[in-house]
């Protein structure tokens, strides 16, 4: 009897600790939606220690005193440049993910379904490439981009990302979950390679594809270093590079832009959380 | 229909036919890989080899200088500082990340309804760095929210002694901010890996130990921990690699020339890039990728051995 109540108390402790960790992680994000609907007077008053120095510390109101849609109006209606940058982000992300599907998916299938000489070495190389930080590839990619005359073009960001090896790895891991017998049965029944890929591989390996798309979206929605290195004109930039340029004086506007950046990312996250978790474990687990 | 199937079966069996089928499908199979591989070759492998070549030449007149660029990097004060900073960052960040995420995973494992809590800890993966940095600037400013809360609490507790906040990003505390944001971003990710590792352990052993009267600590120490050795290694390696991949937030929060304790190798590469000092940059690129390559290969070997 005593043991049971002890275990009960232990479970409650575990729940409380995990809950506090979750709250701690999510609490800072509360600033974004509240800041986006707070009017400039209030923001200036709350953040003035951060903006102008002077005495005291910044404060925050979880419920704005004078809620306003002014910032959202300025972002979504009064400033056409926002849409330019927003659609840059959307276009870049969509082009990269489409390219990865088109190029990476068959590659992943080749690694998963076929044995060919040099396969293991090549795959090892793909894995190394996906784990390297971008700064290591900065100079190599600059040289290619320059050589191909793409410097300053959106293609300089899109093309290297299309050939990224990370989605190939994730999709490969999805395909390896398919039982060998299924493929053999299909082959025995006379299905061609293309048919097997389209009608057996794609439906059965879809978790890997979803994981690649979800993780890819979160990555490319958030591009910073690549556009900074290769795109000179601000009108070609994605929002993720524009947002840090805003100063603290424009906090309300910056919060409203943040909401616009955050909503699609959270939407994809909420829809694809299972695929996301699957994708994370693909990287760290044995075959 | 039946004859057709039998014919196909016979074709499969006869060696001669099979060979030609194989060759034909071999080409078809190659076509799956080729477009992607050519792209990887063009955008990753070949330019990287070009960088290796360039690391032995002077940038301006293309004269062969042997190891000169490497020597220049090695004797560069900023390089040495960046290496030391990275070592500190790693020495503090990796154990903290692994420890916190492991504890959370062990606790989470005991909860039946943990889905929402796991989601909450993963949310940072979905928050674009630019958004996070906007919040960070308000939090860690000298007169920001963190110091505000601290002063409120400490002045109450200390009975009215004055509290002066630290300007975290411009003082020795800068590394703490960097580690904090690293933990914020990656704890959920690593926790998922620990949970996957824990889920792979056979339940029976732990239950048997519990029946035999092993306490929670004993079960952890003698049953769970030894079985998690593989996960320890993998998660440790991935955490180290993640250290190198956490530049984006640092750069956006503190700029190209941050407080000297958070000046990392990535800053150096980025700044040499902007100053077009490609010869030293090439040498540093080769050095850094050699180190990371070794880490990746060890990780791969280990994963294969586990699978083996």
List keywords for this structure.
heterodimer, A: 287 residues, mainly alpha, MetI-like fold, 16 helices, 74% helix, B: 308 residues, 2 domains, globular
N- to C-terminal distance of chain B: 43 Å
Based on secondary structure, the structural category of chain B is mainly alpha
* Average pLDDT over all residues of chain B: 86
What is the global morphology of chain A?
globular
CATH class descriptor name of the largest domain in chain A? Mainly Alpha
> How many domains in all of chain A?
2
Unreliable spans of chain B: 13-21
In DSSP terms, counting alpha (H) and pi (I) runs of 4 or more, how many helices of chain B?
A: 14
For the record, the CATH class of the largest domain in chain B is Mainly Alpha
CATH superfamily of the largest domain in chain B: MetI-like
Number of strands of chain A: 0
Distance between the termini of chain A: 44 Å
Structure description:
The complex is a heterodimer of chains A (287) and B (308). Chain A has helices at 2-26, 31-36, 40-52, 70-78, 80-113, 119-131, 134-147, 155-162, 166-175, 180-188, 193-204, 206-220, 225-230, 239-242, 251-271, 273-284. Chain A is mostly helical. Chain A has 2 domains: 2-68, no CATH class; 79-284, MetI-like (MetI-like fold). In chain A, helix 5 (80-113) packs parallel to helix 8 (155-162), helix 10 (180-188) runs antiparallel to helix 11 (193-204) and helix 12 (206-220) packs across helix 16. Chain A starts with a helix and ends with a helix. Chain B folds into 2 domains: 2-49, no CATH class; 68-307, MetI-like (MetI-like fold), CATH 1.10.3720.10. Chain B is built from 14 helices and no strands. Chain B has helices at residues 2-13, 15-54, 68-74, 77-109, 115-126, 129-140, 145-157, 174-199, 203-211, 216-227, 229-244, 247-254, 265-274, 278-307. In chain B, helix 6 packs across helix 12 and helix 13 runs antiparallel to helix 14 (278-307). The model of chain B is unreliable at 13-21 (pLDDT under 50). Classes of the chains: A mainly alpha (287), B mainly alpha (308). The interface between A and B is large, with 102 and 106 residues.
């Amino acid at each position: 009897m005593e043991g049971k109540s002890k275990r009960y108390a232990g479970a409650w402790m575990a729940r409380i600790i995990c809950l506090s960790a979750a709250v701690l992680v999510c609490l800072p994000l509360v600033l974004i939606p509240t800041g986006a609907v707070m009017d400039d007077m209030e923001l200036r008053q709350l953040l003035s220690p951060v903006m102008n120095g002077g005495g005291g510390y910044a404060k925050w109101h979880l419920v704005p005193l004078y809620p306003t849609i002014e910032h959202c109006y300025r972002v979504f209606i009064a400033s056409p440049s926002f849409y330019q940058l927003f659609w840059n982000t959307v276009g870049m992300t969509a082009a990269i993910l489409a390219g990865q599907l088109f190029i990476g998916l068959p590659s992943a299938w080749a690694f998963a379904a076929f044995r060919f000489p040099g396969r293991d070495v090549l795959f090892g190389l793909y894995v190394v490439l996906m784990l390297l930080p971008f700064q290591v590839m900065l100079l190599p990619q600059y040289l290619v981009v320059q050589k191909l005359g793409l410097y300053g073009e959106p293609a300089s960001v899109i093309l290297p990302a299309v050939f990224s090896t990370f989605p190939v790895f994730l999709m490969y891991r999805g395909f390896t979950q398919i039982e060998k017998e299924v493929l053999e049965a299909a082959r025995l029944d006379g299905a061609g390679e293309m048919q097997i890929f389209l009608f057996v591989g794609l439906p059965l390996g879809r978790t890997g594809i979803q994981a690649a798309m979800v993780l890819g979206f979160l990555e490319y929605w958030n591009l910073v270093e690549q556009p900074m290195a290769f795109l000179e004109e601000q009108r070609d930039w994605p929002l993720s590079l524009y947002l840090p340029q805003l100063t603290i004086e424009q906090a309300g506007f910056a919060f409203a832009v943040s909401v616009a950046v955050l909503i699609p990312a959270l939407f994809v996250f909420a829809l694809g959380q299972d695929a996301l978790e699957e994708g994370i474990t693909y990287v760290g687990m044995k075959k | 229909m039946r004859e057709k199937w039998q014919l196909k079966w016979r074709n499969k069996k006869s060696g001669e036919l099979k060979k030609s089928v194989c060759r034909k499908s071999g080409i078809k199979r190659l076509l799956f890989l080729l477009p992607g591989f050519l792209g990887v070759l063009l955008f990753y492998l070949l330019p990287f080899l070009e960088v290796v070549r360039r690391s032995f030449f002077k940038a301006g007149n293309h004269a062969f200088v042997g190891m000169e660029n490497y020597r220049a990097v090695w004797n560069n004060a900023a390089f040495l500082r960046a290496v030391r900073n990275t070592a500190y960052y790693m020495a503090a960040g990796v154990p903290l990340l692994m420890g916190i995420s492991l504890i959370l995973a062990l606790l989470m494992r005991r909860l039946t309804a943990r889905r929402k809590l796991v989601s909450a800890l993963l949310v940072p993966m979905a928050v674009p760095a630019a958004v996070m940095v906007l919040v960070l600037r308000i939090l860690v400013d000298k007169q920001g929210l963190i110091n505000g809360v601290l002063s409120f609490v400490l002045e109450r507790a200390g009975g009215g002694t004055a509290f002066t906040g630290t300007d975290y990003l411009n003082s020795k505390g800068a590394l703490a901010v960097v580690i904090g944001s690293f933990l914020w971003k990656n704890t959920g990710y690593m926790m998922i890996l620990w949970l996957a590792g824990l889920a792979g352990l056979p339940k029976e052993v732990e239950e048997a130990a519990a029946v035999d009267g092993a306490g929670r600590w004993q079960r952890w120490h003698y049953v769970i921990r030894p079985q998690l050795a593989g996960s320890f290694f993998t998660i440790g390696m991935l955490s180290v690699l993640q250290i190198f991949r956490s530049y984006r937030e640092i750069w956006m929060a503190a700029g190209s020339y941050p407080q000297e304790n958070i000046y990392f190798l990535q800053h150096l590469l980025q700044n040499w890039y902007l100053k077009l000092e490609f010869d030293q940059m090439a040498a540093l690129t080769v050095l850094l990728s050699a180190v990371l390559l070794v880490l990746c290969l060890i990780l791969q070997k280990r994963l294969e051995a586990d699978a083996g």
